C-alpha cells in the first residue's frame, strides 16, 4: 500500500509540474513569475526526475530565439544602427570587457559572469538565452544570470522615468538612454511608454538594433568558450535566427503570420524560464552568494551613468 501511495504521489507531482509548465505558454504567467514557479517546485521536490531538464531547456531556448527573429524589422533596425552605431558598439563591448575583468576580480563562475555581462550589454533575457547554448552554460549558470537581470529590470521600470523627469530629459534623449541602459525589451517599452510616445518610438527602434548584435556576440562567445577543443561549437540556431529575420524582410506580405510566430516564441521563452528555474536549488543559490548580483549592479551602474553623461552632453 505504501508503494502504491508513493507512486500516486509522484504522479501528482509530475502532473503539477507539467500543468504549470503548460500554463507558462499562456499570457497568465510572466517571465519573472515563471522563473520563481520553477524554483519553488524544485525547492519542494516537485520536479520529475524522468525529465532531462538540461536537454529540454537548451532545445526550447534555441527554438524560441529563432522565432523571435520574425519580430525584428530589418529596415528599422539597420537605420537605428546607423544613427546610434557608435554608442551601441561602444556600450556593448565595453560592458562585455568590464564584465570579464570584474568576473575575474570577484572570482565568480566564468560562464555565469559572462552571461550577466551579455544580458547587460545587449537585451537582457533574450541575449542570455541566445548566448547560453553557444557557451554550453549549465541551467544553474543561466538561471542565476536571468535572476540578476530580472531584478534590475524591475527596478529600472520605475526608477528611469523618475530620473528622466528630474533631469528634464527630452523624449528622444530618454528613449536613447532607455534602449542603452535597460536590459529587457519589455522593460524598455514599459519605461519609455511611461515617458511619452516619442520616447517609446525611439527606444523601441534602437532596442531592435541592439538585438541584432545577438548574432555576432553569440559567435564570438562560442570562440571564447571553445575550451581545449580545436573545434568550435557552431550555434546553428543563430543562423536560423538570421534566416527568420531575412524571411520577414524578403516576404513582407505575411506580417500577421510573423507576428503570431513572434508572440508564440515569447511565450515559449517564458516556459524556458520555468524549466531553468526548476533546475535551481537552494544549495546552488547559497554557493553562488551575492557576488553575481553585485556584478550585475556594478555593470548596470557603469552603463547607465556613462550613457547618460554621453547623451546629455555629447548628443
From TrEMBL:
<feature type="transmembrane region" description="Helical">
    <location>
        <begin position="174"/>
        <end position="196"/>
    </location>
</feature>
<keyword id="KW-0812">Transmembrane</keyword>
<dbReference type="InterPro" id="IPR018383">
    <property type="entry name" value="UPF0324_pro"/>
</dbReference>
<feature type="transmembrane region" description="Helical">
    <location>
        <begin position="85"/>
        <end position="102"/>
    </location>
</feature>
<keyword id="KW-1003">Cell membrane</keyword>
<feature type="transmembrane region" description="Helical">
    <location>
        <begin position="144"/>
        <end position="167"/>
    </location>
</feature>
<feature type="transmembrane region" description="Helical">
    <location>
        <begin position="114"/>
        <end position="132"/>
    </location>
</feature>
<feature type="transmembrane region" description="Helical">
    <location>
        <begin position="232"/>
        <end position="251"/>
    </location>
</feature>
<keyword id="KW-1133">Transmembrane helix</keyword>
<dbReference type="Pfam" id="PF03601">
    <property type="entry name" value="Cons_hypoth698"/>
</dbReference>
<feature type="transmembrane region" description="Helical">
    <location>
        <begin position="293"/>
        <end position="313"/>
    </location>
</feature>
<feature type="transmembrane region" description="Helical">
    <location>
        <begin position="60"/>
        <end position="79"/>
    </location>
</feature>
<protein>
    <submittedName>
        <fullName>Putative sulfate exporter family transporter</fullName>
    </submittedName>
</protein>
<comment type="similarity">
    <text>Belongs to the UPF0324 family.</text>
</comment>
<feature type="transmembrane region" description="Helical">
    <location>
        <begin position="208"/>
        <end position="225"/>
    </location>
</feature>
<keyword id="KW-0472">Membrane</keyword>
<feature type="transmembrane region" description="Helical">
    <location>
        <begin position="15"/>
        <end position="48"/>
    </location>
</feature>
<feature type="transmembrane region" description="Helical">
    <location>
        <begin position="257"/>
        <end position="281"/>
    </location>
</feature>
<dbReference type="GO" id="GO:0005886">
    <property type="term" value="C:plasma membrane"/>
</dbReference>
Amino acid at each position: 500500500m505504501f508503494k502504491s501511495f508513493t507512486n500516486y504521489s509522484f504522479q501528482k507531482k509530475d502532473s503539477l509540474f507539467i500543468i504549470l509548465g503548460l500554463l507558462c505558454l499562456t499570457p497568465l504567467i510572466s517571465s519573472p513569475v515563471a522563473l520563481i514557479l520553477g524554483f519553488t517546485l524544485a525547492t519542494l521536490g516537485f520536479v520529475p526526475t524522468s525529465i532531462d531538464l538540461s536537454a529540454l531547456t537548451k532545445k526550447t531556448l534555441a527554438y524560441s530565439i529563432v522565432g523571435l527573429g520574425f519580430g525584428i524589422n530589418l529596415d528599422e533596425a539597420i537605420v537605428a544602427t546607423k544613427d546610434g552605431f557608435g554608442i551601441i558598439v561602444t556600450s556593448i563591448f565595453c560592458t562585455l570587457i568590464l564584465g570579464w575583468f570584474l568576473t575575474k576580480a570577484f572570482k565568480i563562475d566564468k560562464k555565469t559572469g559572462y552571461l550577466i555581462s551579455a544580458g547587460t550589454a545587449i537585451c537582457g533575457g533574450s541575449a542570455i538565452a541566445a548566448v547560453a547554448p553557444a557557451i554550453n552554460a549549465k541551467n544553474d549558470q543561466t538561471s542565476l544570470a536571468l535572476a540578476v537581470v530580472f531584478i534590475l529590470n524591475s527596478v529600472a521600470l520605475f526608477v528611469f522615468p523618475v530620473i528622466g523627469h528630474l533631469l528634464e530629459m527630452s523624449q528622444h534623449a530618454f528613449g536613447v538612454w532607455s534602449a542603452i541602459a535597460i536590459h529587457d525589451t519589455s522593460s524598455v517599452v514599459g519605461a519609455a511608454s511611461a515617458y511619452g510616445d516619442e520616447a517609446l518610438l525611439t527606444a523601441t527602434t534602437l532596442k531592435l538594433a541592439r538585438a541584432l548584435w545577438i548574432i555576432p556576440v553569440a559567435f564570438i562567445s562560442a570562440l571564447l568558450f571553445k575550451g581545449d577543443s580545436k573545434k568550435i561549437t557552431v550555434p546553428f540556431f543563430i543562423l536560423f535566427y538570421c534566416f527568420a529575420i531575412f524571411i520577414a524582410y524578403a516576404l513582407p506580405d505575411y506580417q500577421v503570420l510573423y507576428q503570431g510566430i513572434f508572440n508564440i516564441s515569447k511565450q515559449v521563452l517564458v516556459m524556458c524560464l520555468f524549466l531553468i528555474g526548476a533546475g535551481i536549488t537552494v544549495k546552488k543559490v547559497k554557493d553562488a552568494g551575492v557576488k553575481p548580483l553585485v556584478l550585475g549592479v556594478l555593470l548596470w551602474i557603469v552603463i547607465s551613468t556613462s550613457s547618460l553623461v554621453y547623451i546629455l552632453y555629447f548628443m
